[in-house]
Amino acid sequence: MSFLGQEEQLREFHERFRFLYLALLFAFVILLSRLIYLQLLQGDRMRQYSEENRIKKVSIPAPRGMIFDRNRTLLIDNQPAFDLEVIPQYLKESGSVLPTIKHISQLVGMTVAEIQERLEKAKSQPAFMPVKIKTDLSRDEVAKIETWKIAMPGVGVAMEIKRTNVYGDIASHLLGYISKANQDELPRLNEKSPGKYKLGDDVGKTGIEKELEDLVRGDAGYEVAEVDALGRRVRKENQNSAPTDDEPPEKTARPGNNLVLTIDQDLQLAAAQAFGQVAGGLVAMDPKTGEILAMISRPSYDPTEFSRGISPELWRALLDNPDRPLRDKTIQDHYPPGSVFKPITAIAGLEEGVINPNVKQRCTGSMRLGNRLYHCHKKGGHGDVNLIEAIEQSCDIYFYKTAMKLKSIDQLAKWASAFGFGVPTGINLPREVSGLVPTEEWKKRRYDKEWTAGESLSVAIGQSFVLATALQLANAYSAISNGGILYQPHYVKTIESFDSKHLREQKPEIIHKIDVKPETLTLIKRGLYEVMNGAHGTAYRSRIAGAEMGGKTGTAQVVRISADKIYQKCNKMKYLHRHHGLFAGVAPISDPSIVVAVIAEHQCGGSTGAAPIAKAVIQKYFEKYKPEYLKQSRNTNHELLIDGVGDSTE
Questions:
Q1: Which pLDDT belongs to residue 29?
Q2: How much is the pLDDT for 229?
Q3: Is residue 197 a contact partner of residue 181, using CB atoms and an 8 Å limit?
Q4: Which has fewest Cβ within 10 Å: 138, 167, 392, 554?
Q5: Of 86 and 594, more confident
Q6: CA-to-CA distance for 58 and 55, rounded, in angstroms?
Q7: Looking at per-residue confidence, does 350 or 193 come out higher?
Q8: Distance, CA of 508 to CA of 492 (rounded, Å)
Q9: How far is the C-alpha of 366 from the C-alpha of 396, rounded, in Å?
């Protein structure tokens, strides 16, 4: 190429370089302008951003208040739990995803596929948010991870508080469980305290944990910590640093209040042991105050499993269990009360003046009303029985005849309602059902049919439409034993701060005083005493020597039984068709201290299925609180509480 040709090419490149120089100059001006803007005009703001990247606001969850029984036995505690967490962002930036996963697999005994699956499920969340790989690490696993953490970017151990039911599944329905708050719950939770709850916070879902959430929940705190480029905590920042200008550098978490319940855990344990594998519910009360002494539903579940996130397999097993372990059988399920309801029929008959306790009624084993034959539970009948004997032997015919003498079912309903049936007791627990006390107006409204006389007979012995919960039975028998006072059932004795300062004490609250004659209740209590101690008492085998027990057994049919099969053996029936057993009792009958109501599902009868469970709880109560009664044998041949009982026959 000639010299002139080279010179021509150079001139051509010079023209191109001129545009390149201009482009570089323009870029330099842009960069310089941006630098001036960031350094001079936005310098303070950028410095704050830098500090916020270096300094992390670490949330400190507040422990929930602890829960104790009446004798300060710890029931619900907070225990530390350690989780393995991975921050995907740092894992990817380090370029060692697979090697780190393999290392984690070796340290905690998980497969690579399991770890990858957990990371894959969390892909929808931001990469800077930690993903839980394994919960409830052992001490050895925590030590291994901490030892190798420096070689595993984005991997760390997080400590959380595990809400723990010290006694496993005992009283789980009463105590309740906690779980993570979801989006639908936040508006309700923040209604009283705006901003207090955020998505993923632990909140009470059932039982006491839910109803007393405001008392047991503490106030969360935070602290300021310095982190490295991978987001790992280096050290706690000094007191002069703050995450924002309007917040203090740190806030101490304040634990929630502690609760001392009226519950006695020894009675709870005795009840659980007595139930064994039987499904049902039990309520024990102090009839003079309305305090709940024991309250369990069986089968049950361990609330601790829920506090850390229940597995799908366990949740499905609970849902598929035919005995419904998630339902509280003391307040969320109602049952026909069976013969346990007969004292209410007797009270209605006495108060309305349609029966005379001295007059005997004849029981031949059946009676006819219209075209239907109504049977007594004893095939051959009880012969001639008065009121006390009818309660003692649970004679159906006596109470059929009492119902026939009442003007209408509404008279019986009036007295049932007075003793708390047909309405929720108002105990501070979620989803309590009301039970049912039928009336003529109710049937007309519900079925658009008139009430029939035969339906009154069935209701009089606790069958047909009438329904009651275990708590309602306990409350009604408390009112019978204490002279007609219906107390508000409650389970909190005292509320204390986290440092044991007394804040509040629960006082007994009366719902209403029942306008019933003292002599009527005296008669009923005498009948209840004979049930336990009389020669023909249906619960004679469950009496406790010296305890002066009174009570009433009951049997509730689950399915309708044809007349030709009415006396068939219950234990020969299909399990789900077998009768429920019920019992309600009080002791001592002369000075009532404890009332126990039991519902034992599909156990065929109250005398064999429910009364022995109540006996175990009352026995434990007397051993613990009234041993003097058990040490001295009392004369069971009491004088009659009324004169002339059994003088005539009708």
A1: 82
A2: 53
A3: yes
A4: 138
A5: 594
A6: 9
A7: 350
A8: 11
A9: 9
Distance CA 509, CA 59 (A): 41
Q: How many CB atoms lie within 10 A of CB 504?
A: 11
The verdict on whether omega for the bond into residue 299 sits within 30 degrees of 0, i.e. cis, is yes
pLDDT of residue 336 exceeding 90, the answer is yes
Tell me the average pLDDT across 519-538. 96
SS3 of 153, please?
coil
CA distances from 44 to 38, 135, 244, 364 (A): 9, 42, 13, 99
What's the whole-number average pLDDT of the chain?
Answer: 86
CA-derived radius of gyration, the chain: 36
In terms of Cα–Cα distance, which of 392, 340, 347 is closest to 600? 340
- Rounded distance between C-alpha atoms, residue 588 and residue 593, angstroms: 6
Residues in CB range of 207: below 8 A, 6 or more apart: 172, 173, 174, 175, 176, 177, 328, 429, 430
Query: How many whole angstroms separate alpha carbon 244 and alpha carbon 52?
Result: 9
> How many angstroms separate the Cα of 554 from the Cα of each of 130, 180, 266, 468, 528?
57, 42, 26, 12, 12
Q: Which long-range contacts (CB under 8 A, 24 or more apart) does 117-125 make?
A: 119/86, 119/88, 122/88
Q: Which amino acid is at 98?
A: L
Nearest-10 Cα torsion for 470, 475, 481, 484: -150
133, two tokens: 């790989």
Pairwise CA distance, residues 97 & 101, whole Å: 6
Residue 393 reports pLDDT greater than 80: yes
Q: What is the 3-class SS of 195-237, one letter each residue? A: CCCCCCCEEECCHHHHHCHHHHCCECEEEEEEECCCCCEEEEC
483 Rama class: left (phi>0) / alpha (psi -120 to 50) / beta: left
The answer to whether 331 touches 431, Cβ cutoff 8 Å, is yes
Confidence of residue 580 (pLDDT cuts 50, 70, 90): very high
Cis peptide before 88 (omega within 30 of 0): no
**Average pLDDT of the residues in 348-363:** 96
Other Cβ atoms less than 10 A from the Cβ of 558: the count is: 18
User: Which sign, positive or negative, has the C-alpha torsion 187, 190, 191, 194?
Assistant: negative
Beta partners for residue 573, in sequence order: none
The C-alpha atoms of residue 523 and residue 525 are separated, in whole angstroms, by 5
Give CA angle at 134 (131, 135), nearest 5°.
105
Beta bridge partners of 552: 584
Contacts 24+ apart (CB under 8 A), 5-12: none
Contact in structure between 202 and 53 (CB atoms under 8 Å): no
> Which has the minimum average pLDDT: 27-31, 59-63, 399-403?
59-63
Q: Judge contact between 567 and 441, C-beta under 8 A.
A: no
Q: Measured at the alpha carbon of residue 169, what is the angle toward residues 163 and 171, in degrees to the nearest 5?
A: 90
Are 294 and 284 in contact, with CB atoms under 8 Å apart?
Answer: yes
Mean pLDDT for the stretch of residues 606-611: 95
In this prediction, residue 398 has a pLDDT band, given cuts at 50, 70 and 90, of very high
For 521, how many CA atoms within 13 A lie in the half-sphere containing its CB? 19
Pairwise CA distance, residues 310 & 304, whole Å: 9
